[in-house]
Amino acid sequence: MVTTADVPVTRLEAELAELAGSVPDPELPVLTLGELGVVRGVRMHEDGHAEVTLTPTYTGCPAIEAMSADIERVLTGHGIPEVRVTTVLAPAWSTDDISAEGRRKLAEFGIAPPRPHAAGGPVPVTLSVRCPNCGSTDTELLSRFSSTACKALRRCTACREPFDHFKEL
Amino acid sequence: MTGTDTGAATVTAAALALGDDALILSHRLGEWAGHAPVLEEEVALANIALDLLGQARILLSMVGDEDELAFLREERSFRNLQLVEQPNGDFAHTIARQLYFSVHQHELYAELARGEGPFAPLAAKAVKETAYHRDHAEQWTLRLGDGTEESRARMQAALQALWKFTGELFQPVEGLGGVDWAALEERWLAALTDVVERAGLTLPEGPRTGAWAAGAGRQGLHTESFGRMLAEMQHLHRSHPGASW
After folding, report:
1. Measured on CA atoms in the order A58, A63, A65, A68, is the torsion positive or negative?
2. From 3.40.800.20, 3.40.640.10, 1.20.1260.10, 1.10.3720.10, which CATH number describes the B8-239 domain?
3. How far apart are the CA of B122 and the nearest CA of chain A, in angstroms?
4. Could you tell me if the ipTM is greater than 0.85?
5. Does the model's pTM come out above 0.95?
6. Which residues form the signal peptide (chain B) (predicted)?
7. Which of A26, A100, B35, B179 is the most buried (most CB within 10 A)?
């Protein structure tokens, strides 16, 4: 939980949050962590260490360790002597946290972006997913799980290309 | 209010129970790597196993050192349901186990997520993952039940074989005081009845627990195959303490 929400963010903290958010995602380097929506904030503590709060996309996401290491490296390189990355679960990350720019980049990279959905709603399997290659909405589900836990495997029935779909969570 | 029982000892007991369920089922699903019927299914089972492993790591870390708990406990100290330790069997057995467990886990986590107890943050996260696990199991149940004579017979046999382990799903877990287990069981039965009927299968009859089995896994009493599974799971860590990739 964000227990320090009522303390205003300093300029340095905002700058560091921007830097942490500029780190590329280790598995989808086309996206930054900021665009993915997993950096929750940065706090400077009195002893001079920076605390970065990060939330995983999936509880078992193995990329979280690489993300933490990358953030530490970037902030340390910016002159912060000590960086601690804390993982928080609540509020749970959702694909709705991916920015509009992030969605555009995903589609350009050949991954169909997640559709927006109401939080806590059922798994949306009925709306069509647009093929990132030819733009057709005539696509079919091949498997609910693909190269990573966050993607489903689909095929376009117009251009016949299989493609990954960042599935709604 | 669900899960407001926050005494340290009972939180530990509940975290062990839920964490062990996730860890052991994750390991069983991981055994399919290299053996699944098609590549897509291999990837799906591995992804479900990974979700469960992530849940297990968080839950076991609430209790102590996750590696020590996973690799250095004896069989009698594990608190998982007997259902999740059952061998993979044929693909239908794996799907039946997934169906029974993931409907249960999805309903339980949805209830915990609505509360404010110590498990609410994890449950709110995991319930979205378990929705996909449940959907995966239900779709396969329909496909196997409505498939060939062979697939239908195997799916029916698998549902029957694992039925006796499902009573334990609704034994109250210490530390999850706010959960309405009777209502959970009703929702589970209704969901199972629905999917099994749509698949053209029959909900098994007969007792859902043996004379001694109700809650046995939660007390550390496990079935024969569990010891062999643990030996394989723990062997590397025990032989080479501190080994890492």
Report:
1. negative
2. 1.20.1260.10
3. 6
4. no
5. no
6. none
7. B179
